[in-house]
Backbone:
């Protein structure tokens, strides 16, 4: 199936799932309200956004040096650094580390980069047990589904659906729809896994070059347990997560938690700087960091597209997207859904693969208005639309440029151009359209499924203005 | 008091062909304030439809054809939030590196959305002559976010003392028009406009007012289709036509 048909198929499925859409509407309205409480003062919010933007922008400009410093400082701290060009390499590196340590079971903290690489499946195929320890990730792992949101991976499920899922997999636990009790059950199940796991795998929110510190933001303590209980910890993240200094972290952390979940601070904030030292009672004996490129260096080359990499994966753009709320995350069919997904995935995977995602945007700008690092998402999406249909722009490192150009559509725009750039021709056309307005089709495909057909007026404003004595020039 | 004695009126394509009465009402409002309204004969469209769809060369050719219409250093007033946003925000991108870039930027720099111009420049005062009416206001996303003039339409409608303004749920959410989005993602757009019209109906408003013809075509068209099935309900109207109707 070609990408456009596959996308429409998923959209169709989502739009016909009323329960799913109710789940999203209610969950997202809740998150929006919580976020707004955190930012009572717009001037302060704008100042914080600007600060966060500047920190991330500067980190991207200096990324090559910062990555070198990060590697040097991590190494000096005893954390081993690995570089991966693509998902396959990242997975192989992680599997290699696990093999060498004879690790057969892994507990995972939440990591979207590991979703990019398909790590769980890769490890499971090699007989390594992988348990997701973030509650949302745990739920969707039971359901064999990918995350539908980058911060709240199980947001598409309501409590009844979660209760049924628990009951199916853990029939011994009494059925309940009480969220606290469900969480408690998950905790008990996971505690055992933490105690027994050979290794923990986590993501990273910020990697600080100055000190060689890996920062991990979370709410459930599962991140802390994944990174301290097992004897081996492997962190995986994208190369763009590096920031320069420790003092860069507080503004990013503040705006991240307030934007993402409406919390002034998360319950846990982990700063990992070393493996266990002699005399220490806990912590992993070895810590590894896998830095994944996966197209990021290519994106970095383009001065405009570079902005995409400022993203701190807070999910706020998704929470405010009026299209996402109708569809949910799975309809996008990519690891990252919503506005950031539309902007990032075609760059990562190629316009020829997922370029039609760019059609799922009304350019309303709600995403850019809330993005904590001020990524101009609609501008990026518009640029991708242009790249997808344009054959001439040559300086871009984008894969699949021009691949969505359809001759029929292109010639319609050419005709439109002729008509609207020649005033005489336009007047002739609009005269005809108004005089023959009864010929306007009453059925216009998708438009008239939901609305009446627009109909030209009896006279254009060109004519009315003249009639009413307005000055023409 | 007004400082602008003369302005150019840029009706844009949807207004010219589909909503000329709204366009004319905007001109009449301006004229009543003592402004000489000039309607350049050769104007057509700001280029937005093609720009939005990724066809930038085509958009550029059309936008370029407008420059000759707005040569003099007087304000350009546009009765549409999204066209205003296109000119003020995106012409810079569209014309970047082109020989006529400076000219385009100059036009963009003196472009105003109609409600913005009425409030900020003309400080218009309105006297309501109409019957009591309940309305809801839908601000277009471009007026709200690209141009930052969402409160101007509120201020204008707020001056009418027999009009009660009701507020719909999720007021700032997009109505689902999005230009070619409504064609390319017709079903998503349909679901969005359904949510929007449901929220607007729930207020009990008799009329929905907007400053953008795209939103009007979408919301108004959906109302019409729904009325055909379920009887009466609100109608949608451009703010200029609404204001003129109640004050003239
Ligand atoms: S694009 Fe902005 S709002 Fe969206 S996830 Fe990234 S940082 Fe958050």
Residues:
């Amino acid at each position: 199936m070609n990408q456009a048909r596959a996308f429409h198929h998923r959209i169709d499925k989502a739009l016909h799932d009323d329960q799913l859409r109710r789940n999203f509407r209610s969950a997202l309205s809740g998150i929006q309200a919580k976020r707004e409480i955190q930012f009572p003062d717009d001037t302060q919010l704008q100042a914080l956004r600007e600060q966060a933007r500047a920190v991330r922008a500067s980190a991207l400009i200096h990324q090559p040096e910062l990555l070198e410093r990060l590697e040097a400082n991590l190494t000096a701290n005893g954390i081993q650094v690995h570089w991966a060009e693509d998902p396959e390499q990242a997975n192989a590196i992680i599997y290699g580390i696990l093999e060498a340590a004879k690790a057969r079971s892994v507990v995972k903290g939440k990591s979207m980069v590991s979703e990019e690489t398909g790590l769980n499946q890769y490890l499971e195929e090699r007989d390594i047990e992988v348990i997701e320890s973030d509650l949302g990730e745990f739920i969707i792992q039971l359901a064999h589904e990918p995350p539908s949101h980058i911060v709240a991976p199980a947001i598409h499920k309501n409590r009844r659906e979660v209760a049924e899922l628990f009951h199916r997999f853990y029939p011994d636990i009494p059925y309940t729809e009480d969220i606290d009790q469900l969480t408690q059950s998950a905790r008990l199940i996971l505690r055992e896994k933490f105690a027994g796991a050979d290794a923990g795998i986590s993501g990273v929110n910020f990697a600080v070059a100055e000190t060689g510190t890996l920062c991990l933001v979370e709410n459930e303590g599962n991140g802390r347990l994944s990174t301290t209980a097992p004897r081996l910890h492997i962190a995986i993240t994208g190369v763009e997560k590096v920031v320069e200094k420790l003092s860069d972290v507080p503004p990013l952390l503040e705006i991240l938690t307030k934007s993402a979940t409406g919390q002034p601070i998360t319950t846990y904030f982990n700063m990992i700087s070393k493996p266990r030292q002699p005399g220490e009672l806990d912590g992993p004996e070895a810590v590894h960091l896998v830095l994944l490129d996966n197209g990021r260096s290519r994106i970095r080359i383009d001065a405009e597209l570079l902005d995409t990499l400022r993203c701190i994966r807070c999910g706020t753009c998704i929470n405010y997207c009026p299209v996402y709320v109708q569809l949910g995350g799975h309809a996008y069919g990519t690891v990252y859904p919503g506005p950031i997904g539309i902007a990032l995935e075609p760059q990562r995977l190629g316009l020829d693969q997922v370029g039609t995602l760019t059609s799922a945007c009304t350019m309303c700008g709600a995403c850019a208005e809330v993005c904590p690092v001020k990524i101009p998402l609609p501008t990026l999406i518009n640029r991708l639309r242009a790249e997808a249909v344009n054959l001439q722009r040559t300086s871009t490192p984008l894969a699949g440029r021009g691949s969505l150009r359809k001759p029929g559509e292109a010639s319609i725009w050419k005709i439109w151009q002729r008509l609207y750039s020649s005033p005489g021709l336009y007047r002739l056309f609009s005269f005809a359209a108004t005089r023959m307005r009864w010929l306007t089709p009453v059925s216009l495909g998708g438009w008239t499924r939901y609305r009446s057909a627009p109909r030209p007026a009896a006279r254009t404003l060109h004519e009315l203005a003249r009639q009413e004595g307005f000055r023409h020039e | 008091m007004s400082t602008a004695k003369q302005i150019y009126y840029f009706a844009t394509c949807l207004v010219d062909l589909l909503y000329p009465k709204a366009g004319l009402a905007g001109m009449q409002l301006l004229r009543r304030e003592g402004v000489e309204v000039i309607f350049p004969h050769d104007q057509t469209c700001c280029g937005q439809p093609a720009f939005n769809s990724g066809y930038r060369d085509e958009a550029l050719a059309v936008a370029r054809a407008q420059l000759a219409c707005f040569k003099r250093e007087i304000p350009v007033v546009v009765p549409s939030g999204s066209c205003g946003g296109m000119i003020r925000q995106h012409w810079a991108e569209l014309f970047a590196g082109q020989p006529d870039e400076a000219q385009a930027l100059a036009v963009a720099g003196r472009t105003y959305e109609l409600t913005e111009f009425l409030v900020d420049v003309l400080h218009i005062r309105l006297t309501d002559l109409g019957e009591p009416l309940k309305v809801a206001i839908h601000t277009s996303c471009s007026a709200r976010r690209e141009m930052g003039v969402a409160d101007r339409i509120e201020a204008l409608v707020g001056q009418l003392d027999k009009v009660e303004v009701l507020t719909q749920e999720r007021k700032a959410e997009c109505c689902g028009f999005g230009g070619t989005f409504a064609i390319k993602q017709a079903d998503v757009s349909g679901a969005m406009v359904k949510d929007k019209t449901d929220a607007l109906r729930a207020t009990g408003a008799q009329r929905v007012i907007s400053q953008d013809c795209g939103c009007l075509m979408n919301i108004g068209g959906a109302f019409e289709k729904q009325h055909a099935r379920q009887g009466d309900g609100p109608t949608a109207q451009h703010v200029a036509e609404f204001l003129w109707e109640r004050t003239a």
About this structure: The radius of gyration of chain A is 26 Å. Chain A is about 50% helix and 10% strand. The first strand of chain A starts at residue 79 and ends at 84.
